[in-house]
Amino acid sequence: MPLTMRQRFSLARFLRGPGPETGPVLLDRHRVYILPTRQGLLLGAVLIAILLGAINYDNALTFALVFLLAGLGVVSILHTWHNLQGLRVETGRCPEVFAGGEARFAIGLRNEARQTRPALALVLPDGTETVLDLQPGLHWTTLSRPAPRRGRLALGRFRLATRFPLGLFRAWSPLELAMGCLVYPAPAPPSPLPPGQFGTIGSGGAQGLGHDDFTAMRPYQTGDSIRQVYWKAVARGQGMHIKQFAGEAAQELWLTWDLLPGLPAEERLSRLCRWVLEADEAGLAYGLRLPERIIAPGSGPAQRRQCLEALALHGEQP
Description:
Layout: H1 5-16, E1 25-26, E2 33-36, H2 38-57, H3 60-82, E3 88-91, E4 97-98, E5 101-111, E6 117-123, E7 129-134, E8 137-147, E9 151-154, E10 157-162, E11 169-176, E12 180-184, E13 197-198, E14 213-219, H4 231-235, E15 241-246, E16 251-256, H5 265-281, E17 286-290, E18 293-298, H6 301-312
Parallel strand pairs: 4-12, 16-17
Antiparallel strand pairs: 1-3, 2-11, 3-5, 5-8, 6-7, 6-10, 9-12, 10-11, 13-16, 14-15, 17-18
Helix pairs in contact: 2-3, 5-6
């Protein structure tokens, strides 16, 4: 007999969960499922056999043993279910990762009950488990996934499960959080940076910034090199300022797709990734030219992140 649409929807929700969710997700009574484990089924079969023997021999003590063990099993159902019910699952961040590494997704578990929830397990589709005893309050843990290639990587489905207290029943809730991270290209082996061009950086003016004659100070801005901070002013409690110099024009370093002719696309991206990391480590101002995007020269963490994101998403549809 074919399943109705409602039955199919319920079965899919039972097996896979409701789909990607932004969080926080509350595990209410409609989202926690429970079934007996192998040990629970074995105990049930043993109790049935003992009950048949008690009926056959009319043994009162055997009846008492069967009802006692059956009562413990029924009570464990409630405790197992309550160990998950009422939890809130929150989404965190995923630190940057390069292709070939491991993406680590931060998952927040909020226990609003007053008692500890023991033996909670976060289970990935490959069977990997992260087990923890959850104290009251918000606690963070991480789920790891391999990041074999650049681009966007979603966390995917996982389960929050428990077999507490006796292991006779297993309660679980299937989850799929709308979490993802950007995987940067794998950096190529170290290689010399391409030669820079001397001139004005950015939209510019007529005069570049060099390192010859001190001209003035200006307040520190995010992305400025720490090497140019006027530390004496910091020691006097005057805040962070940057020393400006005039003289030699600043060097404008362009990292372009056309500097690597003949290489496959992924190898070009890996080499450009390595150059971005080396230019950032050296404190240089650099720009990036890709076939579909141009990033103006700059420096600092924001410039590094913008260039690596452009390399990670090269060739993908916006």
